[in-house]
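Sharing a chain and its predicted structure for anyone who wants a worked example. Both blocks are below, sequence first, tokens second.
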Amino acid sequence: MSITSVTRSTGTVVLVLRGSVGTADVDSFRAALADALRAHRPPELEIDCSGVFELDPGVAGRIASTIWAAAPGATRVTVVRAPAALRQQLRLCGGAGLLA
């Protein structure tokens, strides 16, 4: 998995995920999310998953837990352009509120 950070002119930070996302990638995601929140303190942060083509079972729950633990109340974090498998996993683990 690769993660790219982009800041829009509106101040929204976007983390773009690409590739296959496995359990070993959760730590990299956690670090990228923490870095983006700490460096930018954005009002909104989007996690763009349009480039995710494979997802290990259970990873969505770990991603949701990482978001809930890392994101301060002042930053709205949403998962956008998620493939169907990721959307379904997020809904099953209670993360439907993260989907945009």
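Comments welcome. The first strand starts at residue 2 and ends at 7.
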